[in-house]
Amino acid sequence: MNARPFDLTPFHRGTIGFENLINVLTHQHATSSNTGYPPYNIISVDVNEYQIELAVAGFSMMELSITQERNELIIEGTPNEHEDDLPLYLHKGIANRSFRRSFTLANHVEVRGATLELGILRINLERKIPEELLPKKIAISSIKS
Q1: Which among 22, 41, 38 has a CA at the least distance from the CA of 30?
Q2: Whole-prediction pTM value?
Q3: Which of 9, 75, 80, 126 lies most in the core, judged by the most C-beta atoms within 10 Å?
Q4: Tell me: the pLDDT tens digits for 32-68?
Q5: What angle (nearest 5°) sits at the alpha carbon of residue 77, between those of residues 73 and 78?
Q6: 93-100-36 Cα angle (round to 5)
Q7: Domains in the chain and their CATH numbers?
Q8: Strand (E) or helix (H) holding 100
Q9: E strands of 11-89, at which residues?
């Protein structure tokens, strides 16, 4: 079964100022991988706090890297396997292969930190909107005549 291309052309004609959002959606569809490895969860902790959990069983901290480039979060894992150190597997059901998983972050979302515990990599994210972009109340004064 062939997947039909994801066409956002109609949205270009009827929207103004949403070009970045449309480009992000187009990019996400074009670069999405169907491997599903490693599996992940995205959790909304609070209105401005999020957490990404990746199941990375078998990876050490030295074999994982997390990079934020503008609005893209890139998580990579490269197992450090040496032929001499590998045991002779009779069955190998736990995947331990290289991966690259990327997430597009909204504006002003930053990585606060990451932890690795019991095979789960947790990445904490926070949206920090600059003060000048927050809504502000405008006082209404009367004109005395």
Answers
A1: 22
A2: 0.69
A3: 75
A4: 555 688 999 999 998 889 999 999 998 999 999 999 9
A5: 145
A6: 50
A7: 7-35 (no CATH), 37-81+92-130 (2.60.40.790)
A8: strand 99-104
A9: 40-46, 49-55, 64-69, 72-77
